[in-house]
Design brief:
The protein is mainly α and 340 residues long. Helix content is 53%, strand content 9%. The chain folds into three domains: 51 residues, Double Stranded RNA Binding Domain; 78 residues; 119 residues, hpI Integrase, Chain A. A three-stranded antiparallel β-sheet has the order 1-2-3, with helices on one face. It has a three-stranded antiparallel β-sheet with strand order 4-5-6, with no helix packed on it. The longest helix is centred in the last third of the chain and has 27 residues. The chain is elongated, with a radius of gyration of 26 Å.
Length: 340
């Protein structure tokens, strides 16, 4: 325990009239350390008091130094292959190019604000901006756990409010056109299984034949977003299509392992949608269609949540809200017809 621990708080006026606050303290080995806090005096005082307690109780630990590029490579290297890994790396490298932090320790609240403004100027939607910042928050939280920083400036970050949108769900006619536009049986099976199981893109691409149970008509889904395997029932037609596909893809190890990577498959799918002549839809919209169809059929919301592998009921509820809104519009239309 260090009973002589002292922490000094100093301020420096900036050109815009605001004051930037810095902490300065001495370590047990006699070194002087300093850290910039920002312009919030109240927060600076809180950090000073917190640091003083840590020093007094011997709980303070020095942070490790690492450059931004090295940190990004290390962080991304720990993320499993897939779309999340690609998007996370793209976001972190973009942040590095725009804000030029020397390392995780240099990331400041002002940099985060500058990055958000950069994304706005690029025309990124609110949903895309929030997604970028979720990747940043995850990376900075890992930086804390690995001892590169003591705290992250994203603590308490206010994400932008996203307007609720009605999930894109394909009509029966659109489903038929999409399946008809598929260039191969493998692609038709991929689309059909996605529509009738609600599996995510990565879950289907990672499906192996040893996890396909033809006898009990089900598959075991691994690599899920919730990090929990789940058993997904198959329709009789899906089983028949997979059986037909097995002979051609048995050597691959799985029905869709040869379709492509999570990123390359998107371009191939867009070509199919264009050939089908339907309104633009993503691979994830096949999953949204699955959930919406079940909601329209009146399937219990808890069952839909389990089938879709949603982590919370709130995610599932939006599909029921969309169906409910449609029923309300139909009711008003009927009322207007009777009034005439």
């Amino acid at each position: 325990m260090n009973n002589d621990a002292k922490v000094w708080l100093s301020g420096r006026k900036r050109g815009d009239g605001k004051t930037t606050w810095r902490l300065r303290w001495s370590t047990a080995d006699g070194r002087t350390k300093c850290r910039s806090i920002g312009t919030d005096r109240k927060r600076a005082e809180h950090e000073r008091a917190k640091l003083a307690v840590e020093l007094e109780r011997g709980l303070w630990q020095d942070t490790k130094r690492i450059g931004w590029g090295e940190f990004v490579a290390e962080h991304v290297g720990r993320i499993p292959d897939g779309a999340n890994r690609v998007d996370a790396e793209r976001t972190l490298r973009m942040f590095g190019e725009v804000c030029r932090p020397s390392g995780p320790r240099a990331v400041s609240y002002r940099m985060l604000e500058s990055f958000r403004e950069h994304l706005r100027e690029k025309g990124n939607s609110v949903a895309t901006r929030n997604k970028r910042f979720r990747y940043l928050r995850a990376a900075l939280r890992q930086a804390v756990r690995r001892g590169y920083v003591t705290r992250t400036p994203m603590d308490g970050w206010a994400f932008e409010r996203e307007e609720q949108q009605i999930p894109r769900a394909l009509t029966a006619d659109e489903k038929g056109k999409l399946l008809g536009a598929c260039p191969s049986h493998q692609w038709r099976t991929f689309v059909f299984v996605a529509l009738t199981t609600g599996c995510r893109r990565g879950e289907l691409l990672g499906l192996t034949w040893d996890r396909v149970d033809f006898v009990n008509q089900r598959i075991v889904v691994t690599g899920t977003k919730a990090h929990r395997d789940r058993v997904q029932p198959l329709s009789a037609q899906a089983v028949a299509m997979l059986r037909e596909l097995q002979a051609a893809t048995l050597k691959d190890g799985g029905p869709f392992l040869s379709v492509g990577t999570e990123s390359s498959i998107v371009h191939k799918y867009r070509a199919i949608v264009k050939r089908a002549g339907i309104v633009e839809c993503t691979i994830h919209d096949l999953r949204r269609t699955f959930c919406t169809d079940l909601a329209r059929l009146g399937v219990n919301q808890l069952i839909v949540q389990r089938l879709a592998g949603h982590s919370t009921a709130a995610v599932t509820a939006k599909y029921y809200q969309a169906v409910d809104d449609g029923m309300k519009r139909d009711a008003v239309a009927k009322l207007a017809g009777n009034a005439g």
